[in-house]
Amino acid sequence: MPDALEERLAALAADLWVPVPDGLEGAVMRRVATARPRRRWRRWLAGLVAGLLGAGVVASPVGAEIREWLGLPGVSVTTGDDPVTETPTVPPATGSTDLGRAADLAGFTPVVPDALGAPEHVDVSRDALVVSLSWTTEEGTVRLDQFRGDVDPLFWKTTVEADRVAVGLHEALWLPTAHRVEVVAADGTERTLPSRLAAPTLLWVDDDLTLRLEGDLDLDEATRIAESVG
Q1: Which UniProt keywords apply (predicted)?
Q2: What's the pTM?
Q3: From 187's CA, which of 24, 27, 61, 154 has a CA 20 to 30 Å away?
Q4: Contact 222, 215 (CB under 8 A)
Q5: Could you write out the DSSP letters of every residue in 161-190?
Q6: Burial code of 116-143, b = ≥16 C-beta within 10 A, e = fewer?
Q7: What number of other Cβ atoms are within 10 A of residue 201's Cβ?
Q8: Beta-sheet pairing, 75-79 with 155-159
């Protein structure tokens, strides 16, 4: 766990008082005794803090800072103050490569939703971290970005609403309203694309990949597409 996050959680704990049910201590210690990969620990911790936020337990400045950390591997989501009123446009992938070449460049096999079929366009980012697919549908352009979940945040989002949902057995995050998104370089120091307005977006983890589905979709349709990934 990053030192900064550990310090924030320690400071947050000093402000919290939550009734402890009987038997909870033993259950927690048994869970801690089970070795888990680091990334799964981060996901579990994110879910715990999200639950505290949703229950209104966290109300200190420390809680506000931790709220900015919530997200999925490779994605950072920050709550904003004001809703976005502009209409977003989903940019299609602009590359002319194919799925096989994209796999060679990115070092992983891109997944394709059966509900959308073969993508019209396939693109790989300059740093070879992100594979983007796009389709033209009756609802407009649908875009699927995917990348390994063990990288530092590549997508930084600011939104007024984010809901914890599920895609099959996988944790997911639904951003139902238009929101700002920035893409950063691999070293995290230089923005490779300007901030743009993103359409409703579903984020989820599938094995070692983080996937980002964007389009003029509602949650049911986005989930249907996501659950058809093969």
Answers
A1: Membrane, Transmembrane, Transmembrane helix
A2: 0.58
A3: 61
A4: yes
A5: --EEEEETTEEEEEE-S-EEEEEE-TTSSS
A6: beebebbbbbeeebbbbbbbeeeeebbb
A7: 29
A8: parallel
Tokens encoding 6: 């550990």
What is residue 94's predicted lDDT score, i.e. its pLDDT?
A: 82
Are residues 178 and 86 in contact, defined by beta-carbon separation less than 8 angstroms?
yes
Residue type, 44: W
Could you tell me how many helices (H) and strands (E) the chain has, helices first?
6, 11
Q: What DSSP element (H or E) covers 219?
A: helix 219-227
Residues, the chain: 230
- The span from the CA of 152 to the CA of 67, in Å, is 17
Instruction: Report pLDDT for 100.
Output: 96
Tokens of 126: 């300059």
Query: Which residue would you say has higher pLDDT here, 28 or 156?
Result: 28
